[in-house]
Structures are given as C-alpha cells and as structure tokens.
Protein 1
Amino acid sequence: MPFLDYVLQRPAYGWQDESGNLIKPGPGAIFKEFFSRLNIFKDRKNWLPFFSWLKVLCLIPFFFIFVIYFLSWWTLLAAFVYSMIVMGTHGTIWHHRYCTHGAYTFRNPVWRFITQNLTINVIPEEIYVISHHVHHAKSDQPGDPYNAYGGFLYCFLADVNHQPIAKDLNESDFKRVVALMKHTGVTANTYQQYLRWGSYVNPVAATTSWLLNWAFWYGVFFLIGGHALACSLFGAAGFWAVGVRTFNYEGHAKGESKQKAGTDFSENDNSINQLWPGIVAGEWHNNHHLFPKSARSGFKPHQIDLAWYYIKFLHKIGAVSSYKDFKKQFYLQYYTPYQQSKVSLKPELISK
C-alpha cells in the first residue's frame, strides 16, 4: 500500500466500504470516536489530540473574562483583528505553506523559530502537516481526513478522529514521517519513544514549548495593554481555534459542486476560492490546490495575500533565502487560456 494510505490512524468506522465508497458515520459514531481518542487513561498514545483540545479548553476562560470584564470597542477591535487576521495569516504562513508544503526556506533557524512563535501556540504541527499531505493526495476522496462529503462534524472533529498519525508504524515508515517533519524544527521522538507515545513529537517538548509561548505572549500583551488586552487576545485565539476547524468543510464547498468558471481552475476536487478567507488569511484555496507548493496563492490583482506579503518581506531582508511563486504559471496555464477562449467564442455568439 502507498505510504499515505496508512500513515494516519484509521477511525473505528473506517475510511471506505468494500465497494470503495466513503463511509459517512452518523453523529453518534463520530462523537464516540472523538471521546475514545481523547481518553488518555485508556491509552497514553492519545496524548496529542488530548493536548490539542486541552489548549482550546484553556483559552475558553480567557474568552469569557474578555466578554464579561473587558469588552469595549478597542478590545473588540483588537480581538477581531487578532483572531480573523493575525492568527489566520500565521496559520497559512507557518503550518500551511512552510511546514506542509515547504514553499519557502529560512536562511537560519532563528527566523524559523521567530515565525513559528509569531502568535499564541494552538495547533500542533504534527497533527496538521502529515494529515495535510494525505488531504492533497486524496482530496474529497475516501481517506481524505477532512472530506467535506462526510459532513460538518466529520471535518470539525477531524483533528482528533482522522488526523493523528498511526500508532503502529514500523521503523522505516516512522523515518518517513520524520522526513516530512524534520524541516519544521520540531524535535522528533526516537522510534522507541514513538512506540511509547504514538507521536512524532515528545510530550515534554510539546508542553514546554506551549507554556513558554503562552507565558511570553501574555507578558507582551500585558505590558502593552494590561490584563484587558492579554485576556482579549487570548480569548480571540480561542475563538479562532474553534472557528478554524470549520474551514476545510467550507473551503471544499460543504461537499457540493460550487466552483465558478474563471474563478476556480482546479477541477480535481471541490475546493473553491472564498473572498473572506482569502483576504484575511491568504487562503485562496482553489488556487492553492492548483499549486500547493507556491508561497503565494493570491494570484489575481484583487486576491490579497497577507501570508505572501510576510514571506516576501522576509525575503527582502534576507531572512528567507528562497521561495516558490507560481503566479506566472497560473496565468500561462489557466487564466490567460480561459480569457482567450472567451474572446474566441464571442464571434460565434454574435452570429447566432
């Protein structure tokens, strides 16, 4: 079997039936799998999805403190900008374009570390990266960890139910996982540690990184605006952490066919270019599926790409040594031929 067919932990309800069709579990089966995989007392190898949601739960009190005690026009504006733009753009810069697709390279580990910690630490790199490789290989097909055809819950709880790596990889396959993650700078378990913890990252390293990141950013926000700003932005990060889990369901048109001619050119999946995610996070998702390794996915003039602006800025100052940009290929292979086809059809329409 190809590596990406089994690198993720198979859910109890499976990916596909004997005929190769997607298994669409009901809400009961999805929640049963979800809580089973969060049970660290049942199996210590469940620690990473538990850890991922623990961080979300720890952000919730900040959100309520913000709403109850610190809600004002300026804290609301700060929370909106931080959750909608800063957190979203950072996810595109770090998890998506660098960690998964290697769309650009840093000149040294210092700039990589700075970029990794530009925002409040929420999503474990391992859960995102490995599963996203599978997503691109199997978009909207059985085995896609956040297949929109599976429904909203199938996607929303995918980080627990579908995205963790398998717990029974042999040493050779674990080395392949390490190869996919090594450039991120996240310290890898040894194979013996993997057999104990069921993950690429070690829980001690992950917990230490999380606590130091949160302590640093709470201190910075407190010095700028006191507890009001710190609680507002930590609460905003919690809001984003929940909301971002809806993106792939929406970004793949809720399992429907909603692609528009002249806007969405990747026709091998249901991905669509959405205005809001594009503007606030550089997530022009259909463009991204056309050229996954591109450091820019906002190809057209109106497609604002804040993630690309950050990468380009780092390149200008020498922090990024190289990047891949497929804008010219997009116009050459897709947009220009589309425009030419429209022009060539006009005489026919007029004659009719």
Note: The chain has 16 helices and two strands.
Protein 2
Amino acid sequence: MVMIRAAHPRDTGALADLARTAYARYVERMGTEPAPMQADYASLVDAGQVWVAEHDGDLVGLLVLKLEHDHLLLDNVAVSPDAQGLGIGAQLLAFAEEQAREHCLAEVRLYTNEAMTENLAYYPRHGFIETHRGTDHGYRRVFFSKYL
C-alpha cells in the first residue's frame, strides 16, 4: 500500500537521491540535467511544497506542488525507477487534484521537457491537455492543464 504524506526535513537527502535516479535516463537525451535534479529540496520542504509517497516504508515518489492564485502548479512528480509501473505516479496525480480542490482551485497545470517523450503520452491519459510549448528557464517545455 502507498501512503502519501507531507515531506519532513529529514527526507531531503532521500528526495534528492530519488530525483537523481528518476531523471537520470533523461540526461543524455536532453544534453543536460533536468531541473528536478538540481532542485533545492530543503527549501521546498521548508516551504511546505513537497509530498512523498512511501511503499512498505520506502520513499518511492515525490510531488512538488505550488499554489498559485488561479491554479495549482504541479512542479515536479517523480517515481523511483524500481517502483515505476505500480500506479504510484497516478496516485500522486490524483493527490495533486485533491489538493487543488481543497484549496478551491479548479485547474492543475504542469509541464515536462520535450525530450521526456513518455510524459507526452502519459499526462493526456490522465486527463491533461497540452496547452502550449516554449522555452522556459533554458528548457524546451511542453505545458499541460487539467480542469477539475
């Protein structure tokens, strides 16, 4: 069973490790490290923006959510390669939607890198619609939205 909880400061090392392993396969494809590999998880945890997924006591997923005035930004979702295919990513997406509803927000937005082609098919399967593409913070990104 997977449990999703708010991240604690003691999780920051594990969060950074999980991001590095989850995104490692994209480094060669992108020619650089994806932004989540460089994130300051300690600051994000301190800001209350990070949730973790645990399976049998192991940290297997992470979620970074940012409340905006008119939507919830799903800034990062990652699942450990060893736990992929277990539905953890879908559970994290559903949790993000629950958080949006709890904050009376009717939209969840996210983005992914163009080189992460798997995600370009994954997010639409979960109800997200591509809204646009562009360069953001030096990355070629594809932006998605889901109205709840």
Note: The mean pLDDT is 96.
Protein 3
Amino acid sequence: MAHIIVLGNEKGGSGKSTTSMHLFAAIARCGHTVGTIDLDLRQKSFFRYLENREAFIERTGNKLPMPVREVLDYSAKDSVSEAQAEEEEMFAAALDRLDQKCSFILIDCPGSHTRYAQMAHAAADTLVTPMNDSLIDFDLLARLDPQTGKVLGPSVYSEMVWKARQLRASAGLKPADWVVLRNRISTLNARNKRRVGSALGELSKRIGFRVIPGFGERVIFREMFLSGLTLLDLRDTGEMKLNISNLAARQEVREVVKSLNLPGVDVSF
C-alpha cells in the first residue's frame, strides 16, 4: 500500500503547502510516483503551486517531476449525514485510485477543521504538523499556564489528532508517526524560542509526537511559488543562483526529509 503523508495544522500560514511541495520533490527525485490531494478546497494553495509548476514546464521545456493529482469537492447533499457519507466515499475512492498508481500519497489539509481533514488524519502513516515558532501557534497544540508556562492540557488540534489515532487503532492500523516541524525558528536565543521549545518538549512526551527543525524565514520560499519550483529544482533549471542562503535552505530541506524516516527515501538529491 502507498505510504500516506498528511500535512496538517488548523492554523493558516504555517508552511503546509511549501512543505508539501518540497516533500513531493524529494520523494519524486528518489524514483517514487507521488499522488497528491489538496483538501483546502477554497484556496487550493498546494494545487496552485503545482499548476504554476506545470506552466513553467510547458513554458521552458524543463523536465521536472510532476505528481498524480486527485481533485475533491464538497458534497452537494442537503442532509448533513448524507453529505458526510458522500464525502467519505469520495475520499476513500480517491485514495484507492492513487494507491493503485503511487508509492506515496501526499495530502495537504486546510487551516480549518473539516470532515475531509478528519479523514485524512485518520489515514495518515506519517503526520507532519508545520508550525511557526511562536506561542500563538503552539496554542493549537496545547494550553499553557500564562504565569508558569507549564502545559495545562491538549488543545483543539491535538484532540482531533487523538480521535484520529483512536480510529486507526479501532481499524487495526499502527499509530501514525506524528512529527511537529518547527518553522521560522529565530537564530537568537530569545525568550519566546526557549519557552516554545520547553513546552514542545514537555507536550511531546505527554501526547506522543517528535519535534524536528523545519524551514527558516527565507525570501526564496516565497519567490519560487510563481514558477512552481522547489529548492531541489534550482540546480537543474538555472532559474536562480544557489547562493549561500539558498544552499542553507536546501540543506534544511535535506534535514527535514532525513528526519521523517520515510521508507525508500534517502537524501542523496
């Protein structure tokens, strides 16, 4: 069966689509066929990124890997129960079609709580939660005591992941490898950075996730969107010079992929 990777966080702007694109590029460069689903049915940032990539390929003739895409939509049923049942059928059918063609399936979830997102979290073999390195973003994972900084208990997103884990367990599936990706970590030893790190360390032991460093705050990640490129494509396309900052960002991508321990995916790219 295809290995399912889900990018999930109920807060927008955490870097889910950027992470999805770079994971796709890394996995594809290891020779795997990758299936993709964008569950942000309103903004569709992940699929917009891929559309820009497709246009770049047509415009320049560069041979870059592209994934298999499955497009979903909301049910038009009036009844809530009927709509939910139809969306479950559509989601399961999309996964089945991709499973027949692909070694990996990448699912980018919206920055909100939807039925599709719930189903995706329950299907995940690897769950990646990108978060900006701030107490505002941490609040989706857990509630903190404002005076002591101690974790009081899980918050809304962690509770949703817990329910998804229960569904997996009831289906006889092994628990997902839950990885929290700390993006935009400050280079300074700031108080906020220390508090977030301490809180993540405490919470990870209580509810079972791993914490790994993610991507820094770099202009290059925003610049590549319109061309649909990733840092792993720049050497082949010659679109941008690999300066020191870009090389450092590329190394961040390598470290993220390495830390995820995906089957059959190395960091020789």
Note: The first strand starts at residue 3 and ends at 7.
